Automatic annotation (TrEMBL):
SUPFAM superfamilies: Molybdopterin synthase subunit MoaE. Gene3D superfamilies: Molybdopterin biosynthesis MoaE subunit. The lineage of its organism: Bacteria, Bacillati, Bacillota, Bacilli, Lactobacillales. Transmembrane segments: none annotated. GO terms for biological process: Mo-molybdopterin cofactor biosynthetic process. This is Molybdopterin biosynthesis protein, E chain.
Amino acid sequence: MALIKLQTEPIDVAFYYNQLKDPRYGGIVTFSGVIREWTGAIQTKGIGYTAYEEMAVKELTKLAASVEEKGAKVVIVHRLGELAIGEEAVFIGVACPHRKDAFVGCEYLIDHLKKNVPIWKKEYDTDQIRWGGLSQ
């Protein structure tokens, strides 16, 4: 069963990575999405994340199940609230018997999270506030 969590506190990457360790799996692939300072020529001061939490957990659980049914172990953690430059916004980890499947599963999860899960971001730039969502 996947570990799925939406949280306001900082993501403890080492803790969640360790949740993936299992003697059955030889490959662990992780993705950490970090708040960056620049998007092209636009300077970001920070980002706020909000979600339709009940639906987000439901959708994340469905995504994780689609990867786990292929023999993987999955961890997905997403921050909510106000984040500063350099903080992790999302952690995705996939453990599989073989590395190729772990890479494929991790990429699938981040791509589909961004397209299908009701989590929205508000970017605080130096001169404006921009909203982004499902396709960002």
